[in-house]
Amino acid sequence: MAADTTALAQVMVSQPLVAAWLAGMVVGDPAAGLAVGVVLQAVWGRAAALGGASFPWVGPAAVVGGALAGLGPGPATRLGVLAVPAAAPLALSLAAAFLVAEVGRPLVMAKRRRRTGLVRRAEACADAGRGGALVALNLGGVAESVLAGAVITGAGLALGWIGLRIVEFLPAADGRWVALPVLAAGVGSSAAQAARGRKAWIWLGAAAGLAAVGWWLA
Amino acid sequence: MVAGVSATRPVAPRSILARVAAGTLVLQAAFNGERRQGLGVAAALAPAARFWPAAGDRRAFFRRHLENFNTNPAMAGPILGAVVRLEERAAAGDGPALARVPRLKKALEGPFAAAGDALLWSGVRPAAGHLGSAVAILAGAWGAALFLVLYNAVHLGLRMGGVFWGYRRGEEIHRLLASPGLRAATTAVAGVVPAAAALLAAVALGPPAGKAGPALLGAAALALGGILGRRGFTRGTLLAVGAMMIGLTAAFMFRNGIQ
């Protein structure tokens, strides 16, 4: 999923509609994963890796969102054939996905900066006329993407799993007032991650304020 | 003269083109800030290095294609096909063809990127995503499958099939940009995106009562897409997506009774 975003094939199995469904299937609840996938697809359907611009790392994020939706308590309701999780686990799944996508943004850019060193090695391969070595060097980028994606997905799943356990113990675990601060924390921190400098602190402050209000109302 | 023959009658083995086409799938594997897709292009074109038997010529071949290059990855297919054709001609003795290789890449990477971004990133992918999501609500995993089929019918056709097409057309591939077919496809897809978004919102919120309800919703979605697409509303898609998000949220939180 991580490699499909740009490095390998780009057949779009990394798009949320597919990735979240597959992640849900792996944890035993494809219908819940698909429900989160539909929402995330609407959010990131137009996010594209244009030129050298940064972009949210959608593949790992969708896997985290879909898996957490499947790992949470059973569905609260159905939308068509989709199993929609209760408000709090749904919000937690979406928030974790947003956070992973935005943390992935600078990670992808760092990978691209680091790969500049590959150019010198590629030139050495070219000067030696070793086409096979050049191809291998290029394929190394796929392995690097898979590794980075596995790390960020694992971290997102671990944090999300802890969040799910906490949500289970809250008194109003299915209340929308629990969902609100969770979603606010996810959206706020991801927006802060995407923004720079002072703007980031404003976003984070607004999210913290909203989260505090939601918590107090709960 | 061999060059004259190969200029009009392409002779490269299909196996070379097939391997170049497969190489386009990892075009961006080592995307980097300095040369962007350059390393991927050199790796994808590596099978064509056999046109140059001399070691010095091969070195020059790889150096030539390690240069900075960046375009829409799907649209790289036709460009790489045309480059293979030029390399073949140059290796057969057509000197001027060699000088035209970097010029062709430089001249086409930008325009092909713009055309590909409009068609795929702003058109086919969002449209397939909305349609797939609507089907997912009604039929589950079939929605994800539909999304993959719709997107890759265009994407893989351009990316892999484009190598063979570009090889046949050679330097004439620039005509693709002015072709009525490409313009019509881009315009049509621009209309399908908001229509599909409206359809998804309608499915999420539930069709109105009565047998005519789904038909009316479908007609309204198509009309909306037609109007927004025809008038070239660049923000039409965003508006439709915004409306869809509101619809989805409302559907999740109220119609289905989430408390």
Task: Characterise the protein shown here.
The complex is a heterodimer of chains A (218) and B (259). Chain A is an all-alpha fold and 218 residues long. Chain A has one domain (16-172). Chain A is built from eight helices and two strands; from the N terminus they run αααββααααα. Chain A has a two-stranded antiparallel sheet with strand order 1-2. Chain B has 259 residues and is mainly α. Chain B folds into two domains: 2-108, no CATH class; 113-255, no CATH class. Chain B is 73% helix and 0% strand. Chain B has eleven helices and no strands. In chain B, helix 6 packs parallel to helix 9 (180-205). The longest helix of chain B is centred in the middle third of the chain and has 45 residues, at 95-139. The radius of gyration of chain B is 23 Å and the shape is elongated. The model of chain B is unreliable at 1-7, 230-248 and 253-259 (pLDDT under 50). Chains A and B meet through helix 1, helix 2, strand 1, helix 4 and helix 5 of A and helix 3, helix 4, helix 6, helix 7 and helix 9 of B.
Tell me the strand order in the biggest sheet of chain A. Answer: 1-2
Task: Provide the residue-averaged pLDDT of chain B.
Answer: 80
Overall number of structural domains of chain B: 2
Number of strands of chain B: 0
Report the portion of residues of chain B in β strands.
under 5%
Overall pLDDT level of chain A: 82
How do the SSEs of chain A run, as a string of H and E?
HHHEEHHHHH
Largest sheet of chain A: 2 strands, antiparallel
Give the fraction of residues assigned to helices of chain A. over 70%
Tally of distinct domains of chain A:
1
Q: What separation lies between the terminal Cα atoms of chain A?
A: 37 Å
